Protein backbone atom coordinates (compact mmCIF):
# COMPACT_ATOMS: atom_id res chain seq x y z
CA UNK A 1 0.00 0.00 0.00
CA UNK A 2 2.82 2.40 0.86
CA UNK A 3 4.38 1.79 -2.55
CA UNK A 4 1.12 2.71 -4.28
CA UNK A 5 0.82 5.95 -2.30
CA UNK A 6 4.40 6.90 -3.17
CA UNK A 7 3.77 6.19 -6.86
CA UNK A 8 0.65 8.39 -6.79
CA UNK A 9 2.57 11.20 -5.02
CA UNK A 10 5.41 11.04 -7.58
CA UNK A 11 2.94 11.10 -10.48
CA UNK A 12 1.22 14.18 -9.04
CA UNK A 13 4.49 15.94 -8.30
CA UNK A 14 5.74 15.45 -11.86
CA UNK A 15 2.84 17.41 -13.40
CA UNK A 16 4.09 20.82 -14.50
CA UNK A 17 2.06 23.83 -13.39
CA UNK A 18 1.37 26.12 -16.37
CA UNK A 19 3.30 29.37 -16.22
CA UNK A 20 1.37 32.58 -15.58
CA UNK A 21 0.43 34.47 -18.72
CA UNK A 22 2.14 37.87 -18.68
CA UNK A 23 1.58 38.90 -22.29
CA UNK A 24 -0.86 38.08 -25.03
CA UNK A 25 0.16 35.90 -27.92
CA UNK A 26 -0.78 36.40 -31.57
CA UNK A 27 -4.53 35.89 -31.58
CA UNK A 28 -7.36 37.28 -33.67
CA UNK A 29 -10.58 37.32 -31.68
CA UNK A 30 -14.16 38.24 -32.38
CA UNK A 31 -16.08 39.48 -29.37
CA UNK A 32 -19.77 40.13 -28.96
CA UNK A 33 -20.24 43.16 -26.72
CA UNK A 34 -23.44 43.93 -24.84
CA UNK A 35 -24.98 40.86 -26.48
CA UNK A 36 -25.01 42.13 -30.06
CA UNK A 37 -22.16 44.52 -30.96
CA UNK A 38 -19.37 42.72 -32.85
CA UNK A 39 -15.84 43.83 -32.00
CA UNK A 40 -12.69 42.41 -33.54
CA UNK A 41 -9.49 42.37 -31.53
CA UNK A 42 -6.07 41.45 -32.87
CA UNK A 43 -3.76 40.58 -29.99
CA UNK A 44 0.01 40.60 -30.52
CA UNK A 45 2.73 40.67 -27.88
CA UNK A 46 2.30 43.83 -25.78
CA UNK A 47 -0.53 45.37 -27.82
CA UNK A 48 -4.11 44.90 -29.01
CA UNK A 49 -5.80 46.40 -32.04
CA UNK A 50 -9.54 46.85 -31.46
CA UNK A 51 -11.93 47.39 -34.38
CA UNK A 52 -15.53 48.47 -33.86
CA UNK A 53 -17.90 50.02 -36.41
CA UNK A 54 -15.01 50.66 -38.82
CA UNK A 55 -12.85 52.52 -36.28
CA UNK A 56 -9.53 50.96 -35.22
CA UNK A 57 -7.59 51.82 -32.08
CA UNK A 58 -4.19 50.34 -31.25
CA UNK A 59 -3.75 49.87 -27.51
CA UNK A 60 -0.56 49.20 -25.54
CA UNK A 61 -0.49 46.49 -22.88
CA UNK A 62 -0.31 47.80 -19.31
CA UNK A 63 0.72 46.10 -16.09
CA UNK A 64 -2.29 44.38 -14.50
CA UNK A 65 -2.62 42.21 -11.40
CA UNK A 66 -5.39 40.20 -13.08
CA UNK A 67 -5.90 39.35 -16.75
CA UNK A 68 -4.66 41.51 -19.61
CA UNK A 69 -5.08 45.28 -19.80
CA UNK A 70 -4.63 47.53 -22.84
CA UNK A 71 -5.12 51.31 -23.09
CA UNK A 72 -4.92 54.14 -25.65
CA UNK A 73 -6.78 57.29 -26.59
CA UNK A 74 -9.07 57.25 -23.56
CA UNK A 75 -10.13 53.66 -24.22
CA UNK A 76 -9.25 50.47 -22.39
CA UNK A 77 -9.71 46.75 -22.86
CA UNK A 78 -9.41 44.33 -19.95
CA UNK A 79 -9.52 40.63 -20.89
CA UNK A 80 -9.49 37.49 -18.77
CA UNK A 81 -10.49 34.09 -20.04
CA UNK A 82 -13.18 34.46 -22.69
CA UNK A 83 -14.56 37.64 -21.15
CA UNK A 84 -13.53 41.27 -21.71
CA UNK A 85 -14.59 44.75 -20.67
CA UNK A 86 -14.08 47.52 -23.20
CA UNK A 87 -14.34 51.15 -22.12
CA UNK A 88 -14.90 53.22 -25.27
CA UNK A 89 -13.70 56.79 -25.88
CA UNK A 90 -16.98 58.14 -24.48
CA UNK A 91 -16.43 56.30 -21.19
CA UNK A 92 -19.16 53.70 -21.75
CA UNK A 93 -18.39 50.21 -20.46
CA UNK A 94 -19.17 47.28 -22.78
CA UNK A 95 -19.23 43.71 -21.48
CA UNK A 96 -17.86 41.39 -24.15
CA UNK A 97 -17.65 37.64 -24.73
CA UNK A 98 -15.19 35.90 -27.06
CA UNK A 99 -17.17 34.13 -29.79
CA UNK A 100 -14.24 33.22 -32.03
CA UNK A 101 -14.79 29.79 -33.52
CA UNK A 102 -12.38 27.37 -35.13
CA UNK A 103 -13.71 24.01 -36.28
CA UNK A 104 -16.75 24.52 -34.06
CA UNK A 105 -14.69 25.02 -30.89
CA UNK A 106 -14.68 28.29 -28.99
CA UNK A 107 -11.20 29.69 -28.46
CA UNK A 108 -10.56 31.86 -25.43
CA UNK A 109 -7.73 33.99 -24.13
CA UNK A 110 -6.33 31.98 -21.21
CA UNK A 111 -7.31 33.29 -17.78
CA UNK A 112 -4.62 34.14 -15.27
CA UNK A 113 -4.63 32.53 -11.85
Break the fold down into its secondary structure elements and pairings.
Elements: H1 2-13, E1 27-33, E2 37-44, E3 47-52, E4 55-62, E5 68-72, E6 75-80, E7 83-87, E8 93-98, E9 101-102, E10 105-106
Antiparallel strand pairs: 1-2, 1-8, 2-3, 3-4, 4-5, 5-6, 6-7, 7-8, 9-10
Q: Could you characterize the architecture of this molecule?
A:
The protein has 113 residues and is mainly beta. The chain has one domain (21-106): C-type lysozyme inhibitor (Lipocalin, Beta Barrel), CATH 2.40.128. The protein is built from one helix and ten strands. A hairpin with a 5-residue loop joins β7 and β8 (93-98). Mean pLDDT is 78; it is low at 4-13, 16-22 and 102-113.
Question: How many E-type strands?
Answer: 10
* Structural classification: mainly beta
CATH superfamily, by name, is C-type lysozyme inhibitor
Second rung of CATH, namely the architecture:
Beta Barrel
CATH class: Mainly Beta
State Rg: 18 Å
